[in-house]
Design a protein that fits this description.
By secondary structure, the protein is an alpha/beta fold. The protein has 8 helices and 15 strands. Bound molecules: zinc ion. This is NERD domain-containing protein.
Length: 302
Amino acid sequence: MFLKPRDVPQELQKLRSLDMRMRLLPEDKRYYLNLEKGFDGEVAFDAKLVELKPECLILADLLLEQNFSLFQIDTLVLFKKNIHLFEIKNFEGDFDIKADHWSLLSGEEIKNPLLQLKRSESLFRQLLHRHLKISIPIHPHLVFVNPHFTLYNATPDMPILFASQIDRFIKKLNGNSSKITQNNIQIGNQLASRHRTDSPFSRLLDYNYAQLKKGIVCAWCASWMIAGERKMLCNKCGNIEDNETAIMRHVEEFKALFPEQKITTNTIRDWCGDIVSSKKVQRVLAKNFNRVNHGKVSYYID
Ligand SMILES: [Zn+2]
């Protein structure tokens, strides 16, 4: 059971919006596509974990702090008597390990993911000891979910799971029994409540309101939608969405991209590409937010 499900990270959400509405710089685009790929890998691994039979609690995408150090955990699985910690990579291509150095076969060096895993495990263990006052075995795993990935010079003692081994790994775990206790749930909840949403790892992106293309973007296929009387329609995939849901999606998007800006009828109508009337926008805002002031100077807050 997912105690903390995997949401689309805020940064990825923002990059998706910007990529749709402006031309990203080549390095930003590459960064964005990497995030997207990493997220795909994590989601693919989530789908494998659903096959787990022993009772367990799954926490996805945690950003935790221990001793003024922030660390990220892609996935935690809590069983009754132990915890599995997963660092997930969706690498593709041929890689090589020489001593502690990881690189592409082309020679380009990359950060050693085993060191990253070790650091997370150590900080996580300290956090469990000091703050939750528990000591429970932790099993760390570096998971490569992509079947088109090869790692030369990997050895069996490394805590690595390759794509070809994941099914067998799940099967092995399914051979154990586990009954989740109230205590396990408490630990899970405490960990989830320690999750921080203000990631300092986010890349600073340069954009302004004027340069972004305005309009309603389809939630299914990321194409531009057109407005009907009560619904928005996507000509590309056939998705139909009621006005309120579409407008609210775009209010959230606007807030994420421009957290300092006030939410007004005019800004949101403009952000939606002027394809919905002021009256409709106003009705949706009035229904979902609290209005401050009246007339031309009014704006909306949560
Ligand atoms: Zn669509």
